[in-house]
Amino acid sequence: xxxxxxxxxxxxxxxxxxxxxxxxxxxxxxxxxxxxxxxxxxxxxxxxxxxxxxxxxxxxxxxxxxxxxxxxxxxxxxxxxxxxxxxxxxxxxxxxxxxxxxxxxxxxxxxxxxxxxxxxxxxxxxxxxxxxxxxxxxxxxxxxxxxxxxxxxxxxxxxxxxxxxxxxxxxxxxxxxxxxxxxxxxxxxxxxxxxxxxxxxxxxxxxxxxxxxxxxxxxxxxxxxxxxxxxxxxxxxxxxxxxxxxxxxxxxxxxxxxxxxxxxxxxxxxxxxxxxxxxxxxxxxxxxxxxxxxxxxxxxxxxxxxxxxxxxxxxxxxxxxxxxxxxxxxxxxxxxxxxxxxxxxxxxxxxxxxxxxxxxxxxxxxxxxxxxxxxxxxxxxxxxxxxxxxxxxxxxxxxxxx
Length: 402
Ligand SMILES: *Cc1c(COP(=O)(O)O)cnc(C)c1O
Fold this sequence. Notes:
The chain has 402 residues and is of the alpha/beta class. The chain is built from 15 helices and twelve strands. It starts with 9 loop residues before the first helix and ends with a helix. Pyridoxal-5'-phosphate (PLP) is lined by residues 90-92, 116, 163, 188, 190, 210, 212-213, 222, 224.
């Protein structure tokens, strides 16, 4: 590993992070250490292992082995301000792990109204069953967020851009208010990754990612992460250990492989998404493109101010139409696979219907025609953009001629 990691830029850290010689040996990558049992040379070492509970120490498989440690260390290296990173078997598990680390019965969790649907479901289901109340706030209304804080508020969950509708909220402003009121803030940063939005540097306490998406990058693994400064990282770690969270070394090795090319893939997918989103904006079948990199998208100015990168995920809204027309469009696509998840090397499409998962903000957005409500979300992969545009063009023709 390089001798001066503190002086490296993120693109370099993506390459150098986690590659300790004691984990990699004589090759480039850490080995896949498949292990439940760790063997000790003698009784003294066994006692020592049981007494200490520190990162990077052999104990038992549930606390990981060098493969998982290398991935966690590489993620910490690209998250400025992080003391450590916990790994979880999925992004949802990371969100649950972070929230359970900071919330207790009687607390109120404030959640942005455009949060990932399973995050909402967690608030209204699992957390409610543990005596925690979730209240939603308008992602674009900073004063409304401040007004929603009460005695029992303990934490806030942010996400920017929000799932499906892609509004970019003023994270630094909300995080500063949260901190001033003693709330712990956590942010789902799956969209931008720390390369596009350094969460902790922007004043948020916990940085969460679904590694299933961009970091894995090849649609072949499920994993999540949560990173924080020293005090909160210790709490994340305690909670994850209490819940028995561990990820497989094979998946960790795949995620680490994906991480090495994250920057290059994000750059390429951002450029392709911009080109395709711009093309969609000019189509007569499209009412609105919700892509944070475009000026028309809600919170674009905040994106320009706070973000240093984008990705290939965005949505657009059809002009009028109905579910049958949208189904004709989606079914006609050949290069876009129909399926959940995103951030892989291959392009994907899903329908978007935000209305049922909104508590305090309207859908369609204020100012949009009520008939313009059927959305489509695209995840732009690494294919040639001209081919993707031709595919979309064909699908619009199929939509028009049933
Ligand atoms: C997919 C996703 C998650 C959950 O990740 P999984 O690894 O699928 O559990 C969390 N947040 C956002 C924004 C997502 O898109």
